Amino acid sequence: MEIFKNRNFVKLFFAALASQMGTTIGNMAFAFYLLDRFSHQPLYATLAELMYSLPTIFVFFIVGVVADRFDRKKVAENCDWIRAGLTVVLFIALFFQSIPLIFFILFLRSAVTKFFFPAENSLVQGILNKDQYAKAAGLNQMLFSIFMVFGVGLGAATYKTVGIHGAVVIDFFSFIISGFLIRACKIPTAARLPNGKLSWKELSIKSSLNDFKDGITYIIKNRLLALLVFGFFMFGFVTGAFAILPMFTMKYKLALEHYEWYASLFAISLGIGLLVGSGISAFISSKVKPYQLMIFPIFLTGLLVFFLGFTDRVWVFLSLVFVIGTCIAPINVAIGGWMPKIVHPKLMGRVSGWIDPLMMLAQSLTLGVIAFLFPKVVTSTDYLYYGMACIILCVFIFYAMTLPKLSKKADESKNLKEKQLVNH
Fold it and tell me: Domains along the chain?
């Protein structure tokens, strides 16, 4: 409860909650809308998911720079206002029923979203102490879990009751609420502008590329940090597959007549598993090393995803998904609590700015592969699950061989620095 005594954190937490609501519900409603309107062309639903991830390719080099060089509070707040404006345009575009125009607006809105989370994440680091980072990561994981439980269900319910237009209205008000909450925060200038003030006139392509280079150089030189960032890239493949595969599994294999309902149950099962896993992580995170909180759950996740391809019973599928959620949560909590401890605050924006692009790149590649293979080349989703499981198990082997050694070196280096400060 101590972390909730920080009013700035509370406002940022609920701003992230509202922002996530404005993304999740609308995205899922669009997926159901496209699957209903183009029932025999699942390609459209996959392309819609691509509109959420593809913009990263166009803005990734400047996202972290903006979060580090400009007022982080204003960046996050303005992202909400811009997305609210684009949502109004999207509402109007739906009446014309122009799919290319709708996809273009979704693309623009997603591009703006890429600037929100590095700025918000950097603000959180600036208002908390190091002992609270793991708690904040656990709360963020629980926030994500809540939307896994209710987001898809709310998206489906909203689409079935008030239609796609109602979902877009919810998006709009969610972004407005998030913007006002961020505006109400009273955050010290040092946390908002850790690198000092910079005007747009001082920002050039050359300076942006130099800052971008500084970020990737910083990550590469810190091998432990590089491995954690690499983990986000690898799990982008999983995120991409889980964004669309379960819906296809329900519609074309397990629950042909009631796929919306069972797709919602998938999200609920995964979300409850994440909540349970987050609770377990909060209990044991102080008793085990971060790498221990990652390696074994990665192994179990790989095995369970492999079994998803075997099952032909919907309740077995949902039960496996629940356990997968329980395994994924500790991985996210471990990485989320570990990174702020090893990243300098002045570079947090540029480091955070690399996470989303790498995840979205992997997610876009996955969605592109699924769009190309299914159902023309691969007629069953089973083989896609097998491929995803192989990727996860490869990550397990790699991390099991590297993380324990690097963690030990990092602890030794930290202890040496602390002794030097005491002696000095």
Answer: 2-185+205-423 (1.20.1250.20)
